[in-house]
Structure formats: structure tokens, C-alpha cells
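Researcher: We plan to redesign the surface later, but first we want a full-length starting point. C-alpha cells attached.
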């Protein structure tokens, strides 16, 4: 009987482990049963998403320096893979503005944009991005994204919006010049060529912009960008202005994403590693932040590591299906959620709908004016600037505002991939600076509750017994500061020979912290004093025992409650000093004074 129970338990455990591994390898198995019931909602949401991405895909490919069909291909295959292997029910992946701009910035100066060599490098870059993202997800590094401040993303996207707007103004105005690699140079070129403005192009782009804004204001749920681009196309065809300098994109090839093979070479890999890392980090930041923002409304829990894996696989596989680096799309994700999507099936339906739409309308896409796409991109650029969040950041935190401004300026005046690094490193650096300077506070008991509060002056402190609370982890970057602060507090009242360290806010200690505590205990005891501990958490206590700190200080010097700690330590004070002391920091002081009188 007992053996049967054990065997049953082993079998159940093995079954559970197998199911767990299957869910990790094939996460779509978790939502497919639900999709069988909600497919109608997902089907409709997918249609809405396909209509939204149609003009976006063409416009984003233009920003990336690629033929327009590559933006549409990127909205098909990567979206399906990210939906199958990601954790968010509503996140829609595909081409994004910021990544498109970084791709153009990274490769546009190396080879001619739009050329076969350029496309080959973009596909290799996409593959590298996917490998980096997948590796980070497999290594369970999803938490790293939390170290990058939201202000970095806000500042970068605002800077990218300015760069995108400036780069598209020449198409909006009908000017003919090659974009420079630097922001200021583009501004100078734009001003220099203003006299060459083409009025026909300006009319088409202005009409497109007007319709986009009008439709968005009157019917916010309608695909305003699509209506705007159709307006520009109809206006151009009816007037024949394509013969007056209004350029059109030309016929799109097959709507089926063709198989592609990135041109792999060691030299190209070395060349693209830096931008690949920047795009990988930026893509993950976009995807995870968008997924989490929607999850707050839907009540879903997001697995950052699974999102890393999903995004990585979508770019790895997408690189072999003529797709460039993709990430989560804020616009399409928001539309998908508002349209009633229930599961990841909506993203798959959106890709299928887009393919069907392209199959029937691709011949007519040849009439889309580049001026109309420029107008749509200007609207996209404007939408990238989060004015509400920028105002809130400046109002709430000067530090976050500083990060935002530095990232924004770096985006305008540095290479884009380095701008991301600048913002991220600055964000992490400020975080490390905060954690390396934890509060080290002198504490005293207050009132009948005996609650510890921070002393306002040295006059409130006991001349023999000091209580110090450390608010932060004891790791290598913080220990020098903690030691200095304890020494400074002791210098205020050098007669304090007893030190009680309150560690209720300490969650972690490393090797440096352990060694510092050992030196602190030894130094105080050499000077005739002693060190005690209170409020140590179980995990920290385990480390202190393993490291020998607990044995060094002694179990009788480690207290679970402050009443016992204060009562024990005060009894060990010099009662002669207590007899002369006019302060009454602790209730136990009265007992010491009484003992002093008895000795007399």
C-alpha cells in the first residue's frame, strides 16, 4: 500500500514536471483552449489591427530606408511568432518607429539605403537582435529591464520623434536632397532647399495631414491614417500630379513574405554588434513596458522572461522571412485591446487579415504618394511625444527630468544606439548612487510605545549607548559610505561605547559587507566598546552565520525584539556615568541611577 502511494506520487510529480516543461516550450498551449471560445472577438480585433498597420507598415519601412513591402512583411511573420511564444494576451508585435529610425541611422551611412546590400545587412542585424533577445530570455534576465528608467524611454522616443519629423519634412515639402547623418546638418539642408518647394507635393501632403487630423477628431475609432493616405492617392491620380513631381511608391511585389538569407560574415557581425545590442534592449523595453501597461487594465500577469523569448524568436525567424527588427507596437496593442481581443489569437488573425488585404490591394498601392506617407509619419512622430508624461516627470522628480533631458539631447546629437546606452547607463548609475548612499540614522525610543524615531540632534542621544539604523543593502558599493556615517555619528559623542545596529531594512549583504561588519566589531571592541544587532531578517541571519559574523559578535549580542535589546545593553552601562547624566533617553536609566545610589 505504502509503495503504491509513493509510486503514485512519483508518477504525479513526473506528470506535473512534463506539463510544466511543455508549457515553457510551447506557451501557446495555455491559451489555445480559451481561444476556441473567444475566436469571434479575436477575429474582429485582428481585422481592426490589420487595417491600422497597413499605412503604418509602409511608413515605417520608409523610415528604415527599406522598400515599403518590408514593413508589411514585418507586420505578418514576427507578429505571429511573438504571439505564440510571448506571455501577453494583447501585445501586437511588428515594425516600430524608433527601431526603424535606429536601423536607418546604423546602416544608412554604410551602404545605399534600399539596395540589396542594405537589405542584407538589415536582415543580419535582425537576426543578431533576435539571438541577443532570446539569449537574455533563456538566461532569465527579464528583470534587467526594470533597471532602465521610464524616463529613458520617454526621452529617447521624444528625441526620435524630432529626428523623424525633420527627416520627413523634405518629402512633405517636395524637396530633393540627401539626408545628412546629423540633426543640425539636416536642419541646415532643409532651410537651404526651401526655395525649391514643390507646391503640388505640399498640397497633397497637407490634404493628407488634414484628413488624418479631421477623421481622428470626428471618428477616433476609424483608421485615420488609412483615410489620409487614400485621400492623397486619389488627389494625385485625379489631378495627374504624379507628372508634376509628386512621387508614388510604385507597385508592391507579392504579399507573401519571401524566404531570405542574411549575408553572414564575421566582418558584418562585428560591424553590427553594437547597434544590435542597442536595438535588442530598446525592443525589449518597448515590448515589456507596453505589455505591462495593458496588463494593468486587463488584470493579466506578464512574464518578462517569456516576453524576451517571444521577441527573440520573432526576430530570429523573421530574419528568414524578409522581416526587419520588430517589437511591440503601442498603437496596435492599444487598438487590439480596445477592439475586444481576448487571447493572442487576435495577433495571428491580424497577420492573416493583412495578408488577405495585401493580396487584393497590392496593385493599387502603387498610387500611394510619398508625400502622403510623409504626412502620416509626421502624425506618428507627434504621437511619439508623451507630453503628459514629460510634464509629470518634470513636476515630480528633478532626477528623472535630468535623465529625460540628457537622453533626449543624446538622441539628437549622438549616434542613436549610443543615445540609448547613455540614457540606460545614466539611469542605472543614478540608481546605484542612491543604493550606495543608504540612510544611516541615529535612533532613540519615543513615548510610551517605545517606537524608535530619528534623533534631531546629538543632545537627544545617550552619552554611552548609540542606536543606528541602516536603511539599505550592505553591498560593495555601499559599505564605504555606511562605515563613514557610523564613524561620523560616533565622533559626535565619542563616549558612546555601546552600538546597537538596527538591520530591519537590510535585505542583502555581500562579501564586502560581511568583511566590513567583522572589522567594525573588532575595531569597537579594541576601543573598549561593543556592537549589538537587532531586527536581522532570516535570510540575512543565514549569511551572517555562514560567514562567521554571528559567531564573532556572539548570539547574546543578537536580539529579536528591541525591548530586550535596550534592557540588556542599558544594564551593561557604567552606572557612575548614569548617575551624573541629566538625560533620560531610556526608561531603564532610572534603574541604573538607583543602582549607582546603592553602590554609594
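Model: Full-length starting sequence:
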Amino acid at each position: 500500500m505504502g509503495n503504491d502511494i509513493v509510486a503514485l506520487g512519483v508518477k504525479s510529480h513526473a506528470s506535473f514536471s512534463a506539463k510544466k516543461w511543455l508549457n515553457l516550450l510551447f506557451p501557446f498551449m495555455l491559451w489555445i483552449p480559451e481561444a476556441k471560445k473567444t475566436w469571434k472577438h479575436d477575429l474582429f480585433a485582428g481585422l481592426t489591427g490589420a487595417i491600422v498597420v497597413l499605412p503604418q507598415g509602409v511608413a515605417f519601412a520608409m523610415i528604415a530606408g527599406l522598400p515599403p513591402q518590408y514593413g508589411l512583411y514585418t507586420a505578418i511573420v514576427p507578429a505571429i511568432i511573438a504571439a505564440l511564444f510571448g506571455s501577453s494576451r494583447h501585445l501586437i508585435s511588428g515594425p516600430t518607429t524608433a527601431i526603424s529610425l535606429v536601423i536607418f541611422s546604423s546602416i544608412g551611412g554604410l551602404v545605399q539605403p534600399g539596395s540589396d546590400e542594405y537589405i542584407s545587412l538589415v536582415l543580419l542585424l535582425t537576426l543578431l537582435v533576435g539571438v541577443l533577445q532570446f539569449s537574455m530570455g533563456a538566461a532569465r534576465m527579464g528583470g534587467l529591464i526594470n533597471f532602465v528608467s521610464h524616463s529613458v524611454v520617454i526621452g529617447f522616443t521624444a528625441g526620435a520623434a524630432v529626428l523623424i519629423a525633420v527627416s520627413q519634412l523634405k518629402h512633405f515639402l517636395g524637396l530633393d536632397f540627401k539626408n545628412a547623418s546629423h540633426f543640425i546638418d539636416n536642419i541646415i539642408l532643409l532651410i537651404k532647399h526651401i526655395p525649391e518647394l514643390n507646391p503640388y507635393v505640399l498640397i497633397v501632403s497637407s490634404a493628407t495631414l488634414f484628413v488624418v487630423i479631421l477623421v481622428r477628431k470626428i471618428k477616433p475609432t476609424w483608421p485615420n491614417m488609412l483615410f489620409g493616405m487614400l485621400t492623397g492617392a486619389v488627389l494625385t491620380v485625379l489631378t495627374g500630379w504624379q507628372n508634376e513631381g509628386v512621387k508614388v511608391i510604385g507597385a508592391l511585389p507579392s504579399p507573401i513574405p519571401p524566404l531570405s538569407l542574411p549575408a553572414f560574415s564575421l566582418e558584418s557581425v562585428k560591424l553590427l554588434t553594437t547597434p544590435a545590442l542597442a536595438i535588442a534592449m530598446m525592443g525589449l523595453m518597448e515590448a515589456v513596458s507596453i505589455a505591462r501597461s495593458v496588463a494593468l487594465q486587463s488584470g493579466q500577469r506578464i512574464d518578462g522572461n517569456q516576453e524576451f523569448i517571444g521577441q527573440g524568436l520573432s526576430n530570429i525567424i523573421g530574419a528568414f522571412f524578409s522581416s526587419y527588427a520588430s517589437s511591440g507596437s503601442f498603437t496596435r496593442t492599444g487598438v487590439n485591446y480596445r477592439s475586444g481581443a481576448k487571447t493572442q489569437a487576435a495577433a495571428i488573425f491580424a497577420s492573416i487579415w493583412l495578408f488577405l488585404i495585401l493580396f487584393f490591394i497590392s496593385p493599387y498601392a502603387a498610387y500611394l504618394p510619398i508625400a502622403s506617407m510623409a504626412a502620416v509619419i509626421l502624425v506618428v512622430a507627434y504621437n511619439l511625444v508623451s507630453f503628459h508624461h514629460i510634464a509629470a516627470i518634470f513636476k515630480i522628480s528633478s532626477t528623472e527630468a535630468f535623465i529625460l533631458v540628457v537622453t533626449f539631447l543624446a538622441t539628437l546629437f549622438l549616434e542613436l544606439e549610443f543615445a540609448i546606452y547613455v540614457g540606460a547607463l545614466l539611469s542605472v548609475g543614478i540608481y546605484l548612487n542612491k543604493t550606495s548612499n543608504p540612510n544611516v540614522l541615529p535612533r532613540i525610543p519615543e513615548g510610551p510605545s517605545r517606537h524608535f524615531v530619528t534623533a534631531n540632534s546629538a543632545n537627544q542621544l545617550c552619552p554611552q549607548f548609540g542606536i543606528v539604523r541602516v536603511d539599505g543593502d550592505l553591498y560593495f558599493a555601499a559599505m564605504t559610505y555606511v562605515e563613514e556615517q557610523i564613524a561620523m555619528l560616533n565622533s559626535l559623542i565619542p563616549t558612546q561605547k555601546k552600538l546597537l545596529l538596527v538591520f530591519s531594512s537590510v535585505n542583502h549583504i555581500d562579501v564586502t559587507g560581511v568583511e566590513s561588519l567583522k572589522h567594525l566589531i573588532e575595531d569597537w571592541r579594541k576601543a573598549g566598546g561593543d556592537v549589538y544587532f537587532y531586527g536581522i531578517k532570516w535570510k540575512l541571519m543565514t549569511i551572517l552565520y555562514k560567514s562567521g559574523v554571528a559567531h564573532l559578535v556572539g548570539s547574546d549580542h543578537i536580539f529579536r525584539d528591541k525591548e530586550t535589546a535596550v534592557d540588556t545593553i542599558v544594564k551593561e552601562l557604567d552606572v557612575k556615568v548614569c548617575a551624573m547624566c541629566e538625560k533620560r533617553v531610556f526608561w531603564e536609566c532610572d534603574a541604573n541611577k538607583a543602582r549607582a545610589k546603592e553602590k554609594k
